[in-house]
Amino acid sequence: MNKRRGLGRGLGALFPQSGGAADAAGAAAVAQLAVDEIEPNPQQPRRHFDGAELEGLAESIRANGLLAPILVRPVKGRGRRHQIVAGERRWRAAQLAGLRTIPAVIREARDGQAIELALIENVQRTDLNPIEEAAGYRQLITEHEFTQETLSRRLGKARPTLANALRLLTLPDAVQALIRDGNLSAGHGRALAALPAPSALRIAREAAAGGWSVRDVERRAAAAAARRPAGAAPSSATALPPDLADIETKLRFALATRVKLTQGVRGGSIEIGYANDDELQRIVDRICPPEA
């Protein structure tokens, strides 16, 4: 039985025959385009390209050619120029290999579609680090009016998976850098996402230096969350009842940020954390959607 990894669907499943040349069977045709007439998409989710990996791919291309075409879209008003939708790593490696032309599928795609396709291709190939992947999701949500539910359907990912990915972007920049560079995993980041920034950063640095497991970080994060701040009034409250803890978790997933639910004698309070003004606006738009 074949195990399907990444997203369970290909690029063509989202935008079949969405413009560009086609053959008699209706499939998009492959054209040979000049490498120097192709440009990267500045909004594509992937930001880091490992030099050694690119050179390795270039060596393979020199020996075997480029086996899979890239996906591009025409740049309006700029003649023969095309912008990469998916396949920037292969294009860069082809340049290193000295290719003058490269096989490409040409399709029309709006900005939101182009980013979605680039995100899908990168995730399918496991080319994105967790922070780049989360940033791609956020870009589709904030700039192109996708909802988490829409993304869940289009990308073939469970909605809690998307929410957990987005939570990584609430971490301090220094913690995100540790995840982006591979010193910590997304699991480490999720364990830290509910903590205040100073605690999250301190534990993250200790975890990276000590090679802690995700379970180690979860235990340390739980201890830090339970620790009473200096000078705080004593409280008889301990852990939340299971039903309230479940509500707190659902709120974190729904808002993709730190949420703290506190139960009092009568009623309680909800504390919602945000990293900056943009994050606050995103949360406000999520709770109070702007009128159409």
Write the layout of secondary structure elements.
Layout: E1 30-34, E2 38-39, H1 51-64, E3 70-74, E4 82-86, H2 88-96, E5 101-106, H3 111-124, H4 130-144, H5 148-155, H6 159-167, H7 173-180, H8 186-192, H9 197-210, H10 214-226, H11 242-255, E6 259-263, E7 268-272, H12 277-287
Helix pairs in contact: 1-2, 3-4, 4-6, 6-11, 8-10, 9-10
Keywords:
12 helices, two-stranded antiparallel sheet, Conserved hypothetical protein from pyrococcus furiosus pfu- 392566-001, ParB domain, alpha/beta, 292 residues, 47% helix, disordered N terminus, five-stranded mixed β-sheet
Q: Could you report the average pLDDT, rounded to the nearest whole number?
A: 75
Overall spatial form: elongated
Give the low-confidence spans.
Answer: 1-27, 230-238
**In DSSP terms, counting alpha (H) and pi (I) runs of 4 or more, how many helices?**
12
Helix % is 40-55%
Total strands: the figure is 7
Largest beta sheet: strand ordering:
1-5-3-4-2
Please describe the biggest sheet, giving its number of strands, its sense, and whether it closes into a barrel: 5 strands, mixed
Give the CATH topology of the domain at 11-128: Conserved hypothetical protein from pyrococcus furiosus pfu- 392566-001, ParB domain
User: How much of the polypeptide forms β-strand, as a percent range?
Assistant: 5-15%
| Estimated radius of gyration | 23 Å
- How far the N terminus sits from the C terminus, by CA atoms, comes to 47 Å
Helical/strand content category:
alpha/beta
Q: SSE string, helix = H, strand = E?
A: EEHEEHEHHHHHHHHHEEH
Level-1 CATH class name of the domain at 11-128: Alpha Beta
CATH architecture of the domain at 11-128: Alpha-Beta Complex
CATH H-tier superfamily of the domain at 11-128: Conserved hypothetical protein from pyrococcus furiosus pfu- 392566-001, ParB domain
